[in-house]
Amino acid sequence: MAFFGFKDIDKLSEVDMAIYRYIVDHDEQVPYMRVRDLATGAHASNSSVMRFIHKIGYSSFPEFKVSFQTENQDLKNSNDDILTMFTRDAFPNDIEKTIKLVAHLMLDADNIIFIGMGASGAIAEYASRQAASLGFNCYAMKDPYYPLVQQLHNTSNNVLVTLSVSGKTIELVEMLNNFVNSADTVLTSITGNIESPIARIGRYALSYNVEETRIHKYYDLTSQVPAVYLVDGLLKELHNQDVARRIN
User: Which of 26, 54, 68, 111 is 20 to 30 Å from 97 by CA-CA measure?
Assistant: First the structure.
């Protein structure tokens, strides 16, 4: 039986839930408590504690304590690095300077297009929405076969920001190749591979280092947290430059 994995929470009474929450909040002390200690802490009776213990599947209080201590320790060991997925070392030393340069390009752009596929496409939509909230004309593009060249044919001063973890997505590379020699469109990227084609064909690349993770060969589980971090940093700098320009 698993305490933290107990699924029939809806079958617990109000008193049971008070005991349950007390155990969760005092996980380090519970293995050393007696029934009366737990009952006092949870403001319940000894009999209520024992009914709770039986209800969640244990035949005795000692059995519960041994099982709980093991389960709690395993849970703590498995959670050691959940919030340390990346550090400042994941970014180049000059990343702040590059962010300022890309934001400066976006500041005076007539059109800002965030491009991405899959999970990167979702981040492109997020970036576009946030930039639009700041008052900039922008939109997201998740379809690499969309006739973007024709749409931007009679426009100028465009900035394309492509998001790609690998920087090698063939469909995106082919799409961006249409703008390589365009005087009206500047290519930039946010990528996990500074040596990739998408990073190389753009004027600036906001890059990061993160371990690539795939399952079943095709499914990419690589963390997108660094990409979102860069997007937020870019939009913050864009807003700061816009405010400074208005003041001056």
Answer: 111
